[in-house]
Fold this sequence. Notes:
Blueprint: H1 3-37, H2 52-56, H3 66-82, E1 90-94, H4 100-103, H5 107-126, H6 129-143, E2 145-152, E3 159-163, E4 169-173, E5 179-189, H7 190-197, H8 204-211, E6 220-229, E7 245-250, E8 257-263, E9 268-272, H9 285-288, H10 290-311, E10 315-316, E11 348-349, H11 356-373, H12 376-379, H13 381-387, H14 395-408, H15 410-434, E12 451-455, H16 458-484, H17 494-504, H18 515-550, H19 561-569
Antiparallel strand pairs: 1-12, 2-3, 2-9, 4-5, 5-6, 6-7, 7-8, 10-11
Helix pairs in contact: 3-6, 10-11, 14-16, 16-17
Amino acid sequence: MTADRKRSVQNLNTSFGVLKSERAAFDDVWRKVAVFESERMTMFDGQLGDDVYRMMRRDLRDVDNTCRQAIAVFSSGMLSGVCPPSDQWFLLRIADKSGGDDLKKYRPVARWLESVEKVFAKDFTNKNFYTQQVSSYKHIALYGMQCMLVGEAPDGGGTYYRDIPVDEIYIANDYAGRVNCVFREMRLTLQQALEFFGKENLSPCVQRLVDSKDFNANEKITVIHAVIKKAPGYENVMGNNQLPYASYYFEPGEEHLISEGGYESMPYIVTRAYSDGRFPYSISPGTLALSDVLMANEIKRLLLQAGQLSVNPPALMPDRGLVGRLNYTPGAVNTFRKDGSTDVKDFQPLKLVGDFKLAMELLEMARKDINAAFFVDLFMMIHNRTQQGKGTPTASEIQELAQEKSFLLAPILINQQQENFNRLFERVFEIKKREYGAIPPAPRELQKAEIEIEYVSPLVRAQQNQQTNQMLQGLADLRGLVEVFPNCIDIIDADASARKVLENRCMPASCIRTPEEVSQIRQAAQEAQQAQLQQEQDAAQGEQMIKGFKEMSKTPETGSVVQRLLEKIGVNMPGKEPR
């Protein structure tokens, strides 16, 4: 190994140690969240979650399932509200700085954008994106962070998606708070390491394991994958290429670099629930609900104990009144002494009196707070209204409920758009460009244009619908003013208003005519109207002329201009044979 490669791996080990120490404070909280809130006990104690027995082992104090049910509702609600598989939740548009308003007037541009949208939609559906995204939303709920690996299959096989457990990820931010460094600590079997890297690229320690007589292909080793964005001016210093992101594989603690490479974009899409400028990690609904989850488990545990004591209470008996131990088996016979001092009435259960009502109220309060932390009431508004006997809400009420949901989820939605989907589309587009025939050729007008993503998910549309409703309400209010002040209608640009309403309703661009097409249609309609009017005027004048000629006192002379005109229009004068 050259001195430069040895120095690089030393720096990587140092950086990995720093990132682990920075995440340690969050690990303490996340460990409790994993135990009491997750169905899989992800490990945050320095070991990765590959021990199945340890992952599935539950804490004896974990007796309440309210939180896990709330997380299931949260993840399903986020998927259906933010990126529903059965609905279009994104559109492609031309950036304003690239002349978006002018370029979208061209019909070929609109058709090309829609064709690329279909490419993305098909890829998300066929490549398992949505099932992985549901798991990622559970991580957002639990730990306030998700990580989606958008990888490129070898030999031009296109994209693949994989949700990465949070306990494997260590991150750092750039000056603007964006994730620019990801270290992934993963466990690979020796067989996987040999297939992925090749024996010659592994460290001498691992090579000795492979060459040993006791070689076990399923034995696991720890490998770190580091992806770091290169700083300006260091493109040739970090990594062996000029790609924006440097990639390294190495074994922790070993002065051996397995491989290095690079990416055009970050393959690990890291998204936080909430932004915090001080730390790269985020709080989560799970951390906010942790105290209520612990309280709900403790109250329910006490209630279970009280219920058990009520159903199977301890027995009271006189001293030396029973021969042997009590047998609680149904139908069992218990023998007691009948010496005159002991009677069967002396045997009775110990009656325990407790305030079950107060305990149930406290448990219900804790569950309500847990559901509020995971926005369960927002995602199940219609269901809750029906259960409360308020009936099925009207269409306008559903719209108002959706708007309220979008407002309360606004911080999470914004981070989903900026940190998740923006980088997701950038990464997928980069891979698709290398996949033969995946992206159709762009029109000539788009050769230097910048393409942006516009999100039109149900929750985003709920916010846009409020703007549309305000516009329509404004037009309705204006109608009353027009009756008093007719000239005020001139301040409204009807075409611009109609286009805005259609855009907010997510009407495809190819279904909206360009201003030039609308102008041509209106001009043709105006010309047709003028031709129709001219025809009607000519017909009226002709009828008037016919009436006047019929009232003439004598027949025009043969060969005269009047006589030829009458013959042309088919008028028979008195005394003249019909034509």
